[in-house]
Write a structure and sequence with these properties.
Blueprint lengths: L14 H5 L4 H29 L10 H36 L8 H25 L19 H29 L12 H33 L12 H35 L6 H14 L15 H31 L6 H22 L3 H7 L3 H31 L5 H27 L18 H33 L13 H4 L41
Helix pairs in contact: 2-3, 2-4, 2-14, 3-5, 3-6, 3-7, 3-12, 4-5, 5-6, 6-7, 6-8, 7-8, 7-9, 7-10, 7-12, 8-9, 9-10, 10-12, 10-13, 12-13, 13-14
Length: 550
């Protein structure tokens, strides 16, 4: 038991104290280190893929190597980075403090979730290293995954195991929000980040078992030669797509809803303004979580489903744009009424607003049956996916890490470096993926190792692919720059104040520079809403414009 007043970083020392901790904040740090390593690995695969596509013909690797790099990039980024990142890191660190709790409801289960996540990750990577070839793509579509090497079985087992971490984390957050709120912390006073993580927890608990069951069925088919998905055995490959997307479309909101919660907090803090339409934003998170279960069929417009099914899924796709639009309009209204300060976290919030809006609008476009038939399996889909997943989920994560960095570490990063890196990320991202919208609209197919045969009819594809690859290098430089100044901040950064942004949620107003091991000396009594900035002292911006002031 730590002594009263000790912060969570110094309460106990040694690697053993970290590996056996039940402190939600330390578990958040464990997730942060793990996800950062996997993000680096997934990014290396991405750069390899883009380098191969920089010019027609074989550039740095052959077809088999390309397919493996493409598959591993997708698996690592989706299952080991984007899905666990915000709930595992910021959900663990921030949510209990924001609701006035001393920890999550099930601390030991929380630690166990991280170990399960790491076991799934190690299984996935060891299967590739030991057994070899994995080239099915991250969706494991049958019949590709119904034949070939045993590494597919290894990989599906890894996804099955890692899924339990997601279920346990979601369950923990749901119970924590229901049962451990501080006195006075009513549902109408919950920070919007908490609402987003709560809605995400519901999706994690209800959707993740589906992908687990799907992986088990795929495993049994390969092991026992039971005809479930493989047409050669009397199975139905389209059934696999139904199962996969019934999980994977809700999983999109496991990735994006937490980022939306981060953006809501950033918009309020850096606009010095009550978040406009608080109730609508909160309930829209729940609405998105519900509607996300009803639209999986829009991934299958060309898979042979009935016309009436396609029409219904198309209409539902338009419907899910309503709660998303509510959030966007209310964020803009928050800025309109407020006094916007362009600190680094707010730059990422604005970046999210721009990039995710493009991703969302193009998603509505391909929800139109006539458009989707032409754009299906083209680079347009790749660009849309990345504008939502990276332009939304990962940009939101980066913005959140910048925002809560002083609270997590007690240190300040260099603000000028942060802004320069943000510009590099923005420019690099758009060069990489906006060109893919253009290529996709002209028929450039995705998942191709080589496009030399297309150049006679579409010679511009060579230039667009080169621009896309150069953009990926700029994006990588921006992300590496973030890593560099984060490490510099840990080693030599100036000490932060308890509330450098002048924020008004409990983690800023009721904890020290770094939270105590048990968060609060006394359980806080909540008497006001989460974004009453007019009640706070105006210490906004005291943390340093250049990262060098105390």
């Amino acid at each position: 038991m730590s002594a009263p007043g000790q912060n969570y970083l110094t309460a106990s020392k040694g690697i053993r104290s970290w590996l056996l901790t039940t402190d939600h904040k330390r578990i958040g740090i464990l997730y942060a280190v793990s996800v950062a390593l996997f993000f680096l690995l997934g990014g290396i695969f991405a750069v390899l893929v883009r380098t191969e596509l920089a010019a027609p013909g074989e550039t740095i690797m052959g077809q088999d190597s390309y397919n493996q790099a493409f598959t591993l990039h997708g698996v690592v980024m989706v299952f080991l980075v984007i899905i666990p990142a915000i709930p595992g890191i910021l959900g663990n660190f921030v949510l209990p403090i924001q609701i006035g709790a001393k920890d999550v409801a099930f601390p030991r289960l929380n630690l166990f979730s991280w170990y399960i996540f790491m076991l799934g990750a190690l299984l996935a990577l060891s299967g590739w290293l030991i057994i070899g070839k994995v080239d099915t793509g991250w969706t494991f579509y049958t019949p590709y995954s119904s034949e070939g090497t045993n590494s597919v079985l290894w990989l599906t087992t890894a996804v099955f195991v890692a899924g339990f971490a997601s279920i346990f984390t979601g369950l923990n957050f749901i119970v924590t929000v229901h049962k451990m709120r501080a006195p006075g912390m009513t549902w109408n006073r919950l920070p919007l980040f908490v609402w987003a993580i709560y809605a995400t927890g519901i999706v994690q608990v209800l959707a993740t078992p589906v992908i687990g069951i799907t992986m088990v069925l795929l495993f049994l088919e390969r092991l026992l030669q039971i005809g479930i998905f493989d047409p050669a055995l009397g199975g139905d490959p389209v059934l696999f797509q139904h199962f996969f997307w019934f999980y994977s479309h809700p999983a999109v909101y496991i990735m994006i809803l937490p980022a939306m919660g981060i953006i809501s907090d950033l918009m309020g803090t850096f606009s010095r303004q009550q978040v406009s339409g608080y109730t609508f934003i909160a309930l829209s998170s729940v609405a998105i979580a519900f509607l996300g279960f009803l639209v999986w069929g829009h991934h299958m417009f060309v898979a042979g489903q009935s016309a009436i099914s396609s029409i219904i899924f198309s209409m539902l796709t338009f419907l899910i744009g309503i709660p998303t639009g509510i959030k966007v309009f209310n964020w803009v209204a928050t800025m309109y009424k407020g006094s916007v300060s362009l600190k680094t976290p707010m730059i990422y919030a604005l970046m999210f607003l721009f990039l995710f809006t493009i991703g969302g609008l193009t998603g509505i476009m391909i929800g139109v049956l006539a458009v989707d038939v032409h754009l299906h399996d083209t680079y347009f889909i790749v660009a849309h996916f990345h504008y939502v997943m990276m332009g939304g989920a990962l940009i939101g994560l980066i913005g959140g890490l910048h925002y809560w960095w002083p609270k997590i570490t007690g240190r300040l990063y260099n603000e000028t470096a942060g802004r320069i890196a943000a510009v590099l990320v923005f420019v690099g991202f758009n060069l990489t993926f906006f060109t893919q919208f253009i290529m996709g609209s002209r028929g450039m197919p995705r998942r191709y190792h080589d496009y030399a045969g297309l150049l006679e009819q579409y010679p511009e594809f060579a230039a667009y692919n080169m621009v896309s690859t150069v953009g990926s290098y700029i994006l990588a430089i921006g992300l590496l720059m973030i890593l560099v100044y984060a490490v510099h901040s840990l080693l030599r950064g100036k000490r932060a104040t308890a509330n450098p942004w002048g924020a008004v949620t409990l983690e800023w107003t009721h904890t020290g520079v770094v939270p105590d091991a048990h968060n609060f000396h006394h359980v806080p009594l909540v008497t006001r809403g989460p974004y009453d900035f007019h009640l706070a002292d105006d210490v906004f911006g005291s943390a340093a414009d250049d990262g060098d002031k105390p």
